[in-house]
């Protein structure tokens, strides 16, 4: 096996694949990067058993300046290999398997020899049928991930809640995440109706890594689903993730269908006020901020108290307040995550009582995006 390639273009592809490689894996060969060379392309593969990323470097891509001298395959230690490639002196790099699994890496005046492993021992990727492929706009998928993954659980005691629940049916994708203290739900219309309904749970960590790989702009992403795997195709890069097994809890009953009090305000302005209030709440053992809504006076006020440091009170600029007075306490970190997901938009907060979950929705499109937060009992 021997090929020469443009070093900086190679590093870009290498960085994508390295996202999937963990030093903590229990399968030693997975600490390596698999390189398979054919006459027409070089395929890089990295995996931690949960996520697998495969990138194809075709010689038709002129930026790569790929020149294949002989085909073959090898698994090289990912950390050493990537560090070597990044520090080489020349703009070209040649990689050649010489004696057994010894691999020579040369660039300019520098030459490294590192020990590799047999690529046949690397776990095989699942075959996922391409007949039922769903197309998604990359920027929309990235937005959906950002708006829902914040609510996944980090507790392994309920593994099912560490994922985002995706339901694809007819012309709609529904994404839901909850850690039992808060919930995020987003619906989007699909460009074409799906042939069959899919109900899957994708680990939140997988979606976060996928989101980082989605380029800005109108990149189209293909989605394919198998029994226990999901595959996202991002151009010449394939992103596989295992699916979580089990039944996701029914979250529809958690979202209130009526409210006694509503407040309309700007998400970014409210976020800034919550960040100020949480400066003190973080010094307190219970980390709680209180919101007091007085519809008669068209008034909303937040307050925070830390016995050791002091207290804070701030009136919030509101567009409209309607319904009954309410005083409600909540975790400001949950509120900040929720508010960030709305960006600069106007939102409506709806309350039923001081101890019932309340919702945040964009005023322009209330049905498609919901954030729900469970209040904190302070007595």
TrEMBL record:
Alphabetically ordered keywords of this record? Cytoplasm, DNA replication, DNA-binding, DNA-directed DNA polymerase, Nucleotidyltransferase, Transferase
The DNA polymerase III beta sliding clamp N-terminal domain sits at 1-126
Task: List the GO cellular component terms.
Answer: cytoplasm; DNA polymerase III complex
Entry-linked CDD domains: beta_clamp
Do you know which SMART domains this protein is assigned to? Answer: POL3Bc
DNA polymerase III beta sliding clamp C-terminal domain: residues covered: 253-376
The reply to whether Signal figures as a keyword in the UniProt entry is: no
**Cell compartment(s), UniProt:** Cytoplasm
Q: Where is the DNA polymerase III beta sliding clamp central domain?
A: 136-250
Q: Which domain of life is it from?
A: Bacteria
Q: What is its main location?
A: cytoplasm
> What GO MF annotations does this protein's record show?
3'-5' exonuclease activity; DNA binding; DNA-directed DNA polymerase activity
InterPro entries (alphabetical):
DNA_clamp_sf, DNA_polIII_beta, DNA_polIII_beta_C, DNA_polIII_beta_cen, DNA_polIII_beta_N
Question: A Gene Ontology biological process annotation?
Answer: DNA strand elongation involved in DNA replication
Q: Which family does it belong to?
A: Belongs to the beta sliding clamp family.
Q: Which PANTHER family match?
A: BETA SLIDING CLAMP, DNA POLYMERASE III SUBUNIT BETA
Functional description taken from the UniProt entry: Confers DNA tethering and processivity to DNA polymerases and other proteins. Acts as a clamp, forming a ring around DNA (a reaction catalyzed by the clamp-loading complex) which diffuses in an ATP-independent manner freely and bidirectionally along dsDNA. Initially characterized for its ability to contact the catalytic subunit of DNA polymerase III (Pol III), a complex, multichain enzyme responsible for most of the replicative synthesis in bacteria; Pol III exhibits 3'-5' exonuclease proofreading activity.
How the protein assembles, per its UniProt entry?
Answer: Forms a ring-shaped head-to-tail homodimer around DNA.
> What is the protein name for this chain?
Beta sliding clamp
Question: What is this protein's gene name?
Answer: dnaN
